[in-house]
Write a structure and sequence with these properties.
The protein has 307 residues and is of the alpha/beta class. The protein folds into two domains: 3-22 and 92-233 and 270-306, Rossmann fold, CATH 3.40.50; 50-88, no CATH class. The protein has helices at residues 20-23, 73-79, 115-132, 156-167, 177-187, 205-217, 230-233, 256-280, 294-306, and strands at 3-4, 45-46, 56-61, 83-87, 90-91, 94-100, 136-142, 146-153, 193-198, 221-228, 241-244, 251-254, 284-289. The longest helix has 25 residues, at 256-280. It is elongated. The two termini are 40 Å apart.
């Protein structure tokens, strides 16, 4: 059974995956939703909650890059303060970052950085963007089961805990993405946004996406970020190699030239299946190469969603 992350010893210092200088290029960007959501606090996202939708409730500071039509020009004229009026039907984003920590995510660690490290940088960057816009973010670690859950929150201390937990992630040999997602679904009663970061190297993709559809049936917005290492897309050159399974599948000795074409066909079929199942479930899908700098990936993702 998953245990909440009660405390993180390293939460008092900045995570090594939080590069504020690199993320400063994204300072004008926001993480926005594409669907209506639920929330408890006033924020920047359209809510489905009914009643008093035109009732003014508060002001908040304008952030660079937002639609200038939302400025309260009367307040600006009187006080020179740039503020936006908030109404009853505008609420905060509640986002849960679900990170696959199965052993296959460690691929690449002996040749640069692994898929897990890329996910750590990307998820930490996302948490920073979400926290900066005064929204809430939580964390779930998926492996042989639902390993850890940190409920969504928005305080600076909470963001440090999320980022420290991401920094301390370790892989484990087994994977049960479907079961982990089912357990997470039972732990998160309120709708929001689920960001799933995984390589989707599982035995049964249909079973995994049956669990994803649980969230969609409850009208969650689900974003599938499919992580692919460049060495997975193409086999190495050479006469003979021994390929070892990372989750106790054994090993195979062969010449890459003998299996290259069949391997690449199967890998592309796998990627196409993940994309097809994601779109069929109504998810937002993005295939991500770990060869692309994570800030470029995050910036492109934020720009695409803002449009």
């Amino acid at each position: 059974m998953a245990q909440p992350i009660a405390s993180v010893p390293s939460a008092s210092r900045r995570s090594r995956f939080l590069d504020l200088r690199a993320l400063s290029a994204l300072a004008h960007m926001r993480f926005v939703t594409r669907k209506q959501i639920e929330g408890s606090y006033t924020g920047r996202h359209r809510s489905k909650q009914q009643g008093g939708s035109t009732e003014f409730v508060d002001y908040r500071e304008y952030s660079p890059g937002e639609d200038l039509r939302r400025l309260d020009w009367k307040v600006l004229g009187r006080t020179e303060r740039q503020v936006i009026r908030l109404y009853q039907d505008e609420t905060n984003l509640v986002c849960t970052l679900a990170v696959d920590a199965s052993e296959s995510m460690a691929f690449g660690k002996h040749n640069g950085s692994s898929k897990l490290e890329y996910a750590q940088f990307l998820a930490t960057g996302m948490s920073h963007v979400i926290g900066r816009q005064q929204d809430q973010v939580g964390l779930a670690v998926l492996a042989g089961g639902l390993r850890d859950v940190l409920a969504p929150g928005g305080t600076p201390g909470h963001m440090l805990r999320v980022q420290a937990s991401l920094e301390n992630l370790k892989t484990e040999p087994s994977t049960d993405l479907a079961g982990s997602l089912r357990d997470l679904f039972a732990r998160l009663p309120r709708r929001g946004v689920l960001v799933l970061l995984s390589d989707f190297l599982v035995d049964d993709l249909d079973k995994t996406f049956a669990s994803v559809r649980l969230f969609r049936h409850r009208r969650w917005e689900v974003i599938v970020l499919h992580l692919v290492h460049p060495d997975e897309e193409r086999l190495p050159e050479g006469l003979a190699y021994r390929f070892e399974g990372m989750e106790n599948e054994g090993n195979v000795a062969c010449s890459p030239n003998e299996v290259r074409e069949a391997y690449q066909q199967k890998f592309e079929h796998h990627c196409a299946a993940v994309r097809g199942l994601s779109l069929a479930a109504g998810c937002d899908y993005r295939r991500i190469s770990t060869a692309v700098p994570y800030t470029q990936t995050l910036g492109g993702f934020l720009v695409e969603r803002s449009g």
